[in-house]
Amino acid sequence: MNDVVLTGDRPTGPLHLGHYFGSLANRVELQDRHPMYVLIADYQVITDRDVPGEIRRHTTELLLDYLAVGIDPAKVTIFQHSAIPELNQLLLPFLSLVSVAELGRNPTVKDEIAHSSQAAVSGLMFTYPVHQAADILFCKGTLVPVGKDQVPHLEVARLVARRFNERYGAVFPLPEAMMGAQPLLKGLDGGKMSKSRGNAIALSATEDETAALIRRARTDSERMITFEEERRPEVANLLTLAGLCLGRSPRELAEEIGDGGAATLKRVVTEAVNEFLRPIRKRRAEADEAEVRQILAQGNDRARERAVRTLDEVRAAMGF
Ligand code: TRP
Questions:
Q1: Can you list the positions of beta strands (E) in the chain?
Q2: How far is CA 197 from CA 56, 189, 193, 194, 313, in A?
Q3: I need a surface site. Which of 87, 208, 251, 317 has the fewest CB within 10 A?
Q4: For 86-140, where are the E strands, in sequence order?
Q5: In sequence order, which ranges of 176-260 are alpha helices (DSSP H)?
Q6: What is the chain's mean pLDDT, rounded?
Q7: Residue 243's pLDDT band (cuts 50, 70, 90)
Q8: Is the model more confident about 38 or about 184?
């Protein structure tokens, strides 16, 4: 089977180590084996906030993050919603394929509404999973590397593809979610790692920023370091982080640190993370803005060409 890989991120702030081990490493791996599209999902930014904010800066930063981790624009098509009218136009027929009740049942949307700080829930909040189906289907994507929270959206994409094919003829393959094998990395305070909670190490963080974040990380009062995910989640999470950066087992690291306590643990984690980020920082520093603009322009051209073909097919199948 010749898979086409599609995935994406909202440009809302810097990517962090959770993104790296959750999905970026996987993309770098997949780019040598499959045609791949990476979407900077700029229109999706306005699902849970009133205005897109510093969208240009965030778009540039996101692309720099991609380049820094080794996503190769010669192999991967990197593009933006706002540059591909034909992708966005797919939203219209796709919306006709789902019911309002189905839109309201999406657990990820419900969760986002529950945590939203907006005064009112917009229509886009309910319909963006259908737009995300257009993201995946415009290029006939079949493999979608995502985190667990995105699985309901993948179900929407499959539903849209299936119903379109039933009503109008076989146009779309059914996409599949591909989940990272990595354990979920939590934030340095033990909560969900998130750029907005200040508990994440950004890929663009300096050595000093990284050290400061780890210094403030939560641990516990037991001197002996052990890897016990249930009983000592914060310590276990730090060991997991160091283990991922070093390619070693967290249990083994715990044994080595032993009665060195939290201070030794944090020193080990800091060194591991900084060592790991060194080549990423170096590549990031080598890229310049002109290069970024050119990469995006090229990716947008390629993606648009693909979207035009799919929209033509969709219109023909529907009899327009
Ligand atoms: N919703 C995804 C997120 O918040 C980003 C995204 C947009 C995406 N379109 C996509 C992911 C298509 C996978 C496929 O992380």
A1: 5-9, 36-40, 76-80, 143-146, 176-179
A2: 22, 9, 7, 5, 44
A3: 208
A4: none
A5: 207-215, 233-246, 250-257
A6: 95
A7: very high
A8: 38
Strand order in the sheet with 143-146: 76-80, 36-40, 5-9, 143-146, 176-179
Instruction: Note the pLDDT tens digit of each residue in 162-220.
Output: 999 999 999 999 999 998 666 678 999 888 888 778 899 999 999 999 999 999 999 99
Q: If you measure from the C-alpha of residue 12 to the centroid of ligand 1, how many angstroms do you get, rounded to a whole number?
A: 12
Q: Is the CB of 217 under 6 A from ligand 1?
A: no
- Please give the backbone phi and psi of residue 290, each rounded to the nearest 5 degrees, phi first: -65, -40
**41 within ligand 1 shell (Cβ under 6 A):** yes
Cβ atoms of residues 178 and 124 within 8 Å: no
Of the candidate ranges 86-100, 114-128, 138-152, 184-198, the one whose mean pLDDT is the lowest:
184-198
* Residue length of the chain: 320
- What phi, psi does 207 have (nearest 5°)? -60, -45
Q: Is 10 in the pocket of ligand 1 (CB under 6 A)?
A: yes
* Three-class SS state of 151: helix
Full-prediction pTM beyond 0.90?
A: yes
Q: What is the pLDDT of residues 268-317, one digit of tens each?
A: 999 999 999 999 999 999 998 899 999 999 999 999 999 999 999 999 99
Tell me the CA–centroid distance for residue 9 and ligand 1, in Å.
Answer: 5
Residue type at 155 in one-letter notation:
E
**d(Cα 210, Cα 19) in Å, to the nearest integer?**
16
Q: Is the sign of the CA dihedral 115, 26, 190, 12 positive or negative?
A: negative
Residues 6 or more apart whose CB falls under 8 angstroms from that of 271 comprise none
